[in-house]
């Protein structure tokens, strides 16, 4: 997989500037803890999905997916803490029938998504469409797109990792290559509860391309110990729409 490189400067409150040289790599065993951290951010606490097993699955499927890390300068003897951080994770997990039958953690993901969709809007047409895609009925071959990053980073950090997914997917067996993608993203309700505020703002643009969308609420515990309600927005898109989505994101202010 070719490197995907971008520089980013971060300013701390005392005006110091920290320059990070970020680069994309295939997931490796050394990235496991950082991958799990981002998966915790991505999945609800009550998902019952084994994040350790999911991280192992992502690492073993190293031909698909990218982790973005700070490039280590070999000339520097001192090791920076930033060298250990996984800044973003982009990958696709095949949810095809053969993959579900072979992998217990993929089966857990499908069960969790099915439960979320059914609980959210059980009688809506979008729920029925999402469940049909998820279960791989007719000609659909579903996959879960995970595109998670540290919250203070822009979507551009992972843009190239998303752009190469169509080529990377070709390394999978044909029966596991997704034709449709399911995405799950987090949002919170505004104070007057009439607007969703997306944790990843670009997902509002992605939603416009989705052909089916449901919203499921889940209680979570914030850092300060207070409980908060998170809205998980679950969407379905055609895999072939990735270039269109990237163009829309590039054109957005």
β-strand amount: 25-35%
* CATH first level: Alpha Beta
Secondary-structure element sequence?
EEHHEEHHHEHHEEHEEH
- The quaternary structure here is single chain
> Sheet bearing the most strands, described?
9 strands, mixed
Regions with little confidence, pLDDT below 50 for 5+ residues = 5-15
Named CATH architecture: 3-Layer(aba) Sandwich
Mean pLDDT, as a whole number? 87
- How would you classify the helix and strand content by structural class? alpha+beta
Q: N- to C-terminal separation?
A: 30 Å
User: What is the global morphology?
Assistant: globular
Helical content (DSSP H or I, runs of 4+): 25-40%
Compute the number of structural domains.
1
Strand segment count = 9
Alpha plus pi helix count? 9
* Rounded radius of gyration (Å): 18 Å
* CATH fold assignment: Aminopeptidase
If you had to describe this structure to a student in words, what would you say it looks like?
By secondary structure, the chain is an alpha+beta fold. The chain has a single domain, classed as Aminopeptidase (3-Layer(aba) Sandwich), CATH 3.40.630. Helices cover 33% and strands 29% of the residues. The chain is built from 9 helices and 9 strands. The chain has helices at residues 32-42, 51-60, 97-102, 104-120, 125-134, 156-163, 165-169, 203-209, 242-251; strands at 5-11, 17-25, 66-70, 86-94, 142-149, 180-189, 196-198, 212-221, 227-238. Strands 1, 2, 3, 4, 5, 6, 7, 8 and 9 form a 9-stranded mixed β-sheet that branches.
